[in-house]
Amino acid sequence: MKPHLRLAQLSVLLLGVMQAGCGTLSNVAPEADVPQKAQRACGESSRRTINQWLPAMVEQQSPAMVVGVIDAQNQRHYWRFGVTDSEHQYPVDEHTLFAVGSLSKGMTAEATAVLVAQGRLHWSDRLENLLPPSVKLSADAKKITLLQLVTHTSGLPRQNMDLPMLSAFIRYLGNGENFYTDLDSDNVVAALADFSAPGRAEPRYSNLGYAVLNYVLHYQTGQRADRLVQRLLFDPLGMRNSSFTPQTLKSYPLRAIGHAGSQPKFIPRGQVVPDWQFSGNMVGAGSLYTDTADLLTFAAAHLDGSGNAAVDQAIQDTLQVYYPRHKEAANIAWVTDTYGEQSITYQVGYIGGYSSYIGIDRVHHFAVVVLQNSFTWQNNLGHSVLRQMVEEQHQAAACHAATAT
């Protein structure tokens, strides 16, 4: 067999295995359960209602889970389940740190949008002007725009498809260790030299694309994505328990420890797995630790605005739909699903031993955050809660109408 044919076959195998079996840091869309009809009496408070039905919806897939909600009255509610790990047994709450994987991309994309709002970058900027002249680019790579990178519409693959990546992924299945070290290095831009754009232009989730974005931000600003996000986003929003270098946070020793779940395939469910560490171009794509309270603060800014002009312009840019479709419409880092009259804009993250979700419904003024310290594909709770909240709102309106008559 010719070497290039063998490598092509391995790449196909790698893509299939990683999308079906792991795809850590991937954007795997949750399915929303059909909400149950509300069973409360007219006049009960929305908080009491949520307390009645939300615990029954939780199928515990992790040693710990924290759920945070913003309701239509702009009130925040939290539910806590479990402990950080079997050794320390710290009860979790809304201030417990979790690794959130690809939610990192949302923060990095919004910091990029702030730079655009400030006029330092433009969505139409192309890689041929954003990267150093020494970086070799194919004709197709030269045309990739900043907007295409942040919306996953560049055509770049999920990750580099080669034998070293396949070998690292196979090792991960048995040891849980990080297999994205090559994307973390500056070698990541080497993949652009022979990039050929796919024939059909549509969203293709790309860790590679966000690693390239991190490289671009560092070259253009002199700062890594983590520092840009801290200065342009976390500080203005008051997100004080969020960091891409979590060891600097006082709450880090009490963090939720990651556990095996659906993955790694050959590690027993519930066993502690290694933390993933990044130091280069994957920092802004997957190394964020944060808590439920900070993520609700982030969500609140997307519902009501932040009061910071540049941040609010960035939020408007990131929530705009750039590739419309019924499910998984492409925003900037966010994705939007439509269920009848309800649109849910959300992000999900999977890394090491963690799963995370943040979703908002801007029309009905709802937000939900779900953090778990187990890697599980069963990440549909956030969608289901948002759909149930609309069902509750409809019943409240019906109660009001009945009382008025």
TrEMBL record:
Listed GO molecular functions?
Answer: hydrolase activity
Q: Which domain of life is it from?
A: Bacteria
One Pfam entry name: Beta-lactamase
Name the keywords, alphabetized: Hydrolase, Signal
Q: Where is the Beta-lactamase-related domain?
A: 55-377
Please indicate if the UniProt record lists GTP-binding as a keyword.
Answer: no
Signal peptide stretch: 1-20
Put simply, this protein is called Class A beta-lactamase-related serine hydrolase
Question: Which species is the source of this protein?
Answer: Buttiauxella warmboldiae
